[in-house]
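Subject: for your reference before the review

Hello V.,

The reviewers asked for a structural picture of the protein, and I figured it would be easier to keep everything in one thread rather than splitting it across files. Below is the amino acid sequence we used in the manuscript, unchanged from the supplementary table.
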Amino acid sequence: MLAVDGGDPPKTGSAEVVIKLEDVDDNVAVFSDATYQFSVAENSAVGSLVGTVTGVDIDLPPYNLVYYYLSGDEARGFHINPHNGQSSVPALPSIFVTNRIFTS
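And here is what came back from the structure prediction:
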């Protein structure tokens, strides 16, 4: 930075100014698909992979971390790894049928 006074002759002074820009959490995670749908057999073994969801946040670290979780009543029959988005059959399966379709 250079400062100049109004004298005659003008006198000047200078100083180095360092401006550090820091990233903020200003971007939301974007998922590879808008909707994820997985199927699982009712006799699936405990720990069986059901599917994987994938999200990416373009912020710089540490604001680019994406954590995964399930919510709602439908989620109680599954487990999701909060770090990699892999959904699996939990140790104590409580999978239930939400929609039954009968045909004759």
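For the response letter, the relevant points are probably these. The beta strands are 2-4, 12-14, 30-31, 49-52, 55-56, 79-80, 86-88. The longest strand covers residues 49-52.

Happy to draft the paragraph if you're swamped.

O.
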